[in-house]
Amino acid sequence: MCQSTWHDFLRGLPKCEHHVHLEGCLTPELIFQLAEKNNVQLPDPKSEPAYESIQTLTARYGHFSSLDDFLHFYFIGMSVLNQESDFADLAWAYFLKAHADGVHHAEVFFDPQVHQDRGIPYETIVAGFVAGCKRAETELGLSTRLILCFVRHLPVESAKKTYQDILDSRHFESDIIHGLGWSSTEVGPPKDMYREIYASASERGVRLTAHAGEEGDPTYISTALELGATRIDHGIRLVEDPVLMERIAKEGVLLTVCPLSNVQLKCVKTVAEVPIRKFLDAGVKFSINSDDPAYFGGYILDNYCAVHEAFGLSVAEWRTIAENSVSESWIGDERKAELYKSIEVHVAKFAELA
Ligand code: HPA
Ligand code: ZN
């Protein structure tokens, strides 16, 4: 953990989180607890020894070999969520942690298709997560945005059904669904599988993001941009294409970087290999995020601290990161002005570090 004054600086630095999967906040404790409450059968430890106990599951999480290896456990974990209150409680647990880590604004992902696939109605999932978001806004003063993610391991027809659910419930118009993203297996399914959905959503003025350039090469990023994404989740392999990197810097496309996730999923060996310095030098905007904190051993502050330990950034550089996180958040100018102000006030308190 970083030195104590720096730790205080990083903890209190007003943060925006743009890349966290609410289902990725399900801890092993909560998985076992909800499985019992909801009568959900977890895998038999004879065939999947990780599910012997909370301890064995936690230990297994320390040895993911790839994105797909992680996703196997992530989708099993999600299967314990049944009631609206399960979704609400999960979101609330995340917001409490985020608030303690200095998050002022959070844009959170959820994967309805996977729940719908096992018979949970779209309305139940959304109502639960919305309740968690509302509670965070009222009780913690956070601003929140809900981003629905399509999952690339399921057929595109499944995504089209969920997209129709959004349209039928008028959740774009009511701003209940603030944006769309895609996630899950990157390499394998067609890069442009959501072309039709993204074209339709673009026409409606819906904000679009996409997981790309995590395991996949930079063409996954350029395809996402071609389909209308204005933000890229992960995007660390962007450094392999200097021309695309220049374009992304020029267009102000935000990368939502998740350093501890990248290490845990073996995209990089250490946090020092995440191209933080290259992005800063090239003027590429990025935010630092937790992705699936219950699986990767750290929430957002742990990611900030890991970056600080690896790169020893200056106060001015941290301020740039914090301000870019605000400027590219999907919020109005008034809220942005509040966040800029709180960053300014916080930085002024730590003049000794500058
Ligand atoms: N990548 C792709 N899909 C995901 C991830 C990720 O890091 N986390 C949860 N779903
Ligand atoms: Zn992710």
Automatic annotation (TrEMBL):
GO terms for biological process: adenine catabolic process; hypoxanthine salvage; nucleotide metabolic process; purine ribonucleoside monophosphate biosynthetic process. It catalyses: adenine + H2O + H(+) = hypoxanthine + NH4(+). One of its GO terms (molecular function) is adenine deaminase activity. The active site is at residue 214. The record marks 234 as: Important for catalytic activity. Residues 14-343 form the Adenosine deaminase domain. It is an enzyme of class 3 (hydrolase). GO terms for cellular component: cytosol; nucleus. Transmembrane segments: none annotated. The keyword S-adenosyl-L-methionine does not apply. Its EC number is 3.5.4.2. Keywords: Cytoplasm, Hydrolase, Metal-binding, Nucleotide metabolism, Nucleus, Zinc. Substrate binds at residue 292. NCBIfam families: aden_deam (TIGR01430). Belongs to the metallo-dependent hydrolases superfamily. Adenosine and AMP deaminases family. Adenine deaminase type 2 subfamily. This is Adenine deaminase. The gene is AAH1.
